[in-house]
Amino acid sequence: MIAGEASGDHLGAGLIRAIRARVPDAEFEGAAGPEMIAAGCRPLVHAEALAVMGITEVLAHLPRLLRLRRGLRRHFLQRRPDLFIGIDAPDFNLGLERRLRKAGIRTVHYVSPSIWAWRARRVFKVGKAADLVLTLLPFEQPLYAAHGFHAVYVGHPLADRAPRSLDRGALRKTLHLPAGERLVALLPGSRFTEVERLLPIFLETAQWLTNHLPEVKFVLPAASPELGRYIKNQVRMLTPDLPLTVIEGHAREILGAANAALIASGTATLEAMLWRCPMVVAYRLAAGSYALVKGLGLLRIQHVALPNLLAGREVVPEFLQYRALPLNLGGAMLRLLQDARARDAQLQSFAELEQGLRLGADERAAAAVLDLLNRSTTSAGTAQRITGVAR
Predict the structure, then answer these.
(1) What pLDDT sits at residue 202?
(2) What is the DSSP string of 215-268?
(3) Residue 138 lies in domain
(4) Which candidate, 348, 368, 356, places its Cα nearest to that of 139?
(5) CATH number at residue 47
(6) Are residues 284 and 364 in the same domain?
(7) pLDDT over 90 percentage in the chain
(8) Are the C-beta atoms of residues 308 and 117 closer than 8 Å to each other?
(9) pLDDT tens-digit map of 319-333
(10) Residues 290 and 385 in one domain
(11) 156 and 179 share a domain?
């Protein structure tokens, strides 16, 4: 399997374990992150090789990504896996899936692209590339069914793994965080390009907040040691007096320990919801990417934060592109910290939304994958060689 970032690595590892529970001698290979490798995937390429986001950013890496995809295609066509699973990374995976499917290899795409948000005609691209689409969000499966494509809603693995109850005090003790302080988590993203773009805004927002609420403290989980070093250098240069603790990893536990969080739009907003952390959401694309998206009219939704998309309304405040300013973000965070009704409203909505996502996604996905594989396999009892690519 090939995972290009942590979220794809989580999904791939869960799916590997669930398939192996049913088919113990199944074999996996691809480009894997640490979780997928630990679950038994033979790595061809490291997951981070695909971790590029944004239109202009991808263009800068395009020659390397095309070479990587050609190499993987040649490998898989020679190896002839019984099944190919592409996890997320649609711009990378769908072309690969289409070529492999044309060559007679069964294909699955795990995690639907955001066809409900922009570039809606990708539903046809996905449907033609994959024999089966596995969706994580409930409103996605009907979009494929309406066009005659086979899709199964499996729920979300993050919901299955989220704790049903939290002890914030115990989490803070484990993470060596102050026990009695108001604590705000800062999550500016897991990719370097995201952090580079959003970290200065998040730090300036935190500084604004300390000017209005001097007792507040901050914690920031770094997705990797390299990001951790970059973040610490930026803090020293931009906000040296900010009461901020940088911790490598442990993002979910930090969300569980914090009173609130300022988060870059993405999977982290779902994790904050599941770990019952009230939040303010922000995001900025690179200027070139934003100009293309806006100029071509590609964006089709009003909200991007996952709790808002699931609810069909604004559950959490979100500020995008040029609205993602310290004054806006700080004001929304100050209200969240000082207004119990605002916090409770978010938490009530979080509890309701979680129920529709906690379905046993790993097992449901494994069942759908093996059903497709078994329907396409003429001989029984053979070890399946299952190959996947994850973002």
Answers:
(1) 97
(2) T-EEEEEESSHHHHHHHHHHHHHH-TT--EEEEES-HHHHHHH-SEEEEESSHH
(3) 2-160+358-390
(4) 356
(5) 3.40.50
(6) no
(7) 65
(8) no
(9) 988 899 999 999 999
(10) no
(11) no
